[in-house]
Amino acid sequence: MxxxxxxxxxxxxxxxxxxxxxxxxxxxxxxxxxxxxxQGGPLVGAAADAxxxxxxxxxxxVTTGSVSxxxxxxxxxxxxxxxxxxxxxxxxxxxxxxxxxxLAEETLLPGMRAILTSAGLTVLxxxxxxxxxxxxxxxxxxxxxxxxxxxxxxxxxxxxxxxYQPSLFFSTERVGRxxxxxxxxxxxxxxxxxxxxxDVLFEEAIAQGxxxxxxxxxxxxxxxxxxxxxxxxxxxxGGTIAAVTPCDVLVTAACSNWGCNAIAAAMAARxxxxxxxxxxxxxxxxxxxxxxxxxxxxxxxxxxxxVDGLHLEIHVAFAEMLRAVVKPALVS
Length: 332
Description:
By secondary structure, the chain is α/β, with parallel strands linked by helices. It is built from 13 helices and 7 strands. It has a single domain (5-331), classed as inorganic pyrophosphatase (n-terminal core), CATH 3.90.1640.20. It has helices at 5-19, 28-39, 43-52, 82-96, 109-118, 126-135, 153-164, 198-207, 228-234, 238-241, 256-271, 280-292, 312-331; strands at residues 59-63, 99-104, 122-123, 140-145, 168-172, 212-216, 249-252. This is D-glutamate cyclase-like C-terminal domain-containing protein.
């Protein structure tokens, strides 16, 4: 059953308003205005349409994860990003039997496996996952590391794209390099050491015509290259940290996980499939799982379930608000 386009259009506007509510006061409302002007319509809806346009059973590259304190250890990851990426991979698998290949640093893959499993996905090697996608017997993902070497990144990028031939590349809360080639934190600290050069892979995908969707909340992430002027003007240290890597569809959000959750909600509305939603209880489960594996709240520098300094209950409530926004489409 097709949902009335007017209902979808109204929901897309509400979802955009929710994700761009700048609770942390970091300037995302300005980034949203720039991204919205470029897109010419709601950002969340455009991202959902792009994801649902991939063929059934296709392969999609997904990247997230940040070696957030790389100068200390490359095994320390951030809790914004992985949960959102897991929700997108889950929605794609349930909606279209899509096989997501999740790329991150090798040091972060064990934690990514735990988060993806908590989202209901089975992590398998590529060939086995392909079987499951074809017969629809499992919601699956594959994990893949990418090089941390500047010298090796271009050739490895070409090789991966040739082998896996993704129909789309999705990035969330994945830091990209700035105009000077450095990977900066929000505090303008160089933390490129031990970081997989996935932005090089992303840019090669763009060069080869692969559609791209990105989510970010600070200006230093992959995809923010399309609003770099707004980042420089409105974000603290923006002139230094602004990432240069562009994308086809950019979703700016107060928290990157929120952007992913809103995209999944828009997908659920379009497909009239409640399974695609990130339910509040699942959001709680994923963020608490992040504590179990040691992901840090990078704003407050501790291991807890509060993402970007916002309390766990705010994130759970946000998931409930998303469910309320799209409920008319799911029950009509």
